[in-house]
Amino acid sequence: MSATIARAPRSYPGQVGLTCGEANARSVIDSFGVAYQTPSRTRIWVKLFGHSLLTDLRLLMEAHGLAAPVRHAGRLNRDLKVRVLKSHVDAGNPVVVAIGNGHLRRGRYVWWARLLLGHYLTVYGYDDARRVFYVYDSYLRGRPPAPLPAGNETRSYAEMLRDWKGPIYYRLIGRNHAYLPVSRRGDAARPDRRAAAKAPSDP
Q: For residue range 20-37, what is the model confidence (pLDDT) as tens digits?
């Protein structure tokens, strides 16, 4: 079985500087057909580093009429972590995921970078046959080797689980295994609750 969200964005531009949070937010907002509006008032932190905090991303989405609650999947086992992401795609909603970024260039992975660099990417679809997610990674430049149904890159389920642990400092600030499922405000669907109803803790 494979699935791709119906509302993929029109384009996947690269981020400028440390603005992966805002780049992913703009992509998601565009996928809902909403015109992006630059906030008129922002905190100093946001001006310096972009919308890099989970709360900043949530507020930015809410300012555009979207719901983006901050959730954590740390207590789920590996299979349920994958199932939670897929459940939101099945509901037609993208998922912004906080990860550790070892993909410094397309086709090249640097293991130690994942331990140091925080990053966001957005899941727009998946393919069970290939065991991959279709994602938007704003750090990557250029086009993927082959056309994709959504996103600008693929991540295998195993790669997603590895990177979702985040860099070392995520554990200190409570961001490891964090994600923001995005839907139109007022949509009360909680597919992750159904997916993780009987979730054991991670080993």
A: 888 999 999 999 999 988
CA angle 84, 90, 94 (to 5 degrees): 75
Enter the pTM of the model.
0.87
- Of the CA atoms within 13 Å of residue 138, those in its CB half-sphere come to 26
- 156-168 pLDDT per residue, tens: 999 999 999 999 9
Give the angle 102-103-108 at the CA atoms, nearest 5°: 110
Cα–Cα distance, 196 to 163 (Å, whole number): 20
Query: Cα–Cα distance between 115 and 163 in angstroms, integer?
Result: 9
Cα gap 93→5, rounded to integer Å: 6
Cβ count within 10 A of residue 176: 20
- Which amino acid is present at 6? A
